[in-house]
Specification:
By secondary structure, the protein is an alpha/beta fold. The chain has a single domain (26-305), classed as NADP-dependent oxidoreductase domain (TIM Barrel, Alpha-Beta Barrel), CATH 3.20.20. It has ten helices and 13 strands. The chain has helices at residues 63-75, 94-102, 131-145, 165-176, 190-197, 217-225, 245-254, 258-269, 282-290, 298-305, and strands at 32-35, 39-42, 46-47, 80-82, 88-89, 92-93, 110-115, 117-119, 125-128, 150-156, 180-186, 204-206, 229-230. The strands form four sheets. The protein has a seven-stranded parallel β-sheet with strand order 3-4-7-10-11-12-13, with helices on one face. A two-stranded antiparallel sheet has the order 1-2. A hairpin with a 2-residue loop joins strand 5 (88-89) and strand 6. The chain is globular. The model is unreliable at 1-22 (pLDDT under 50).
């Protein structure tokens, strides 16, 4: 798939070639998508969840290294960063690291955040936020990031959530007030997406999707047809790239890593797919962003599409 702008066509995007693209900003090599039609972002972005710590119960990461990773990401052409106020560990918060690293922000940088439930220090979810708590959460993100508006705010659902019309309406009102530019939904069912779209435009969906987690494949296709960004969380399944024979075979053919092949597979899955791999390692950052240049062949894609488990 040549790096092009997302068009929202329902035509199958699985037309990658094995040719690599050279670019001074490697993150741009996979093309770009216009969030909401007016904010172009490179399809290779960055997720900030791993900056404070690798796991909720693990040791905190060095904040200076997190700041260096963020600055290097922008140097590599990343202009879409995904965060949340509940990305924290002990006294280290992703939003604070983003502000310290990048404020004043580049004009083309889109920072997306999520609100909905909060999290306890052990990582467990609090109850879903009510409208007043959602307003407070938006203002918290504004303060922590040092911004007068937020580029993209997702309403993050929990699996136990029912309809979220009142909560999404609260975010829609904040959008009308100018505090939010665009709205999205995260961890949402097709029904919750449809309900939200009745209230205000939804420009992005952040749900799980990876070679071994394809429950939302129909939603991926729906978003592509409607030119809605699909932003998969846990692109490696939540525990690093899976150790699968098929991934290793494809990676060996390209002189790449399984993680890079996984990201290339995601980008080939839909023209509106936006990858946000996260890391606190400068080396892993370079590796992830380089995957924007990787072009998988039809044979590669067929082999990866057939993945069914650890013996694949």
């Amino acid at each position: 798939m040549a790096p092009t702008e997302s068009t929202g066509s329902s035509t199958s995007p699985r037309t990658s070639t094995s040719t690599k693209t050279s670019n001074a900003a490697p993150a741009a090599a996979a093309g770009h998508h216009r969030i909401g039609g007016d904010r172009p972002v490179h399809r290779m972005g960055f997720g900030a969840m791993r900056l404070p710590a690798a796991h909720w119960d693990g040791p905190a990461h060095d904040p200076d290294r997190g700041i260096a990773v963020l600055r290097r990401a922008v140097e590599l052409g990343v202009n879409h960063i995904d965060t949340a106020a509940f990305y924290f560990h002990e006294d280290i918060a992703a939003n604070d690291l983003i502000r310290r690293a990048l404020h004043p922000y580049p004009d083309d940088l889109v920072i997306a955040t999520k609100v909905g439930p909060g999290r306890f220090p052990d990582g467990s979810w609090m109850d879903p936020a009510d409208p007043a708590e959602l307003r407070a959460a938006v203002h918290r993100n504004l303060r922590e990031l040092g911004r007068d508006h937020l580029d993209l705010v997702y309403l993050r659902f929990l699996r136990s959530d029912g309809p979220g019309e009142d909560r999404f309406a609260t975010l829609a009102a904040l959008r009308e007030e100018g505090l939010i530019r665009h709205l999205g939904v995260s961890n949402a069912t097709p029904g919750q997406l449809a309900e939200a779209q009745q209230i205000a435009p939804v420009v992005a969906v952040q749900n799980r999707f990876s070679p071994l987690s394809r429950d939302h494949a129909e939603l991926v296709e729906l978003c592509a047809a409607r030119n809605i960004a699909y932003v998969p969380y846990f692109p490696f399944g939540g525990a690093g790239a899976p150790d699968l024979a098929a991934l290793r075979r494809v990676a060996d053919r390209h002189g790449a890593t399984p993680a890079q092949v996984t990201l290339a597979w995601l980008l080939a899955a839909s023209p509106s797919m936006l990858a946000i791999p996260g890391t606190s390692s400068p080396d892993h950052l370079e590796e992830n962003v380089a995957a924007a240049e990787l072009r998988l062949s039809a044979e590669d894609l067929a082999e990866l599409d057939a993945l069914v488990g650890p013996d694949a």
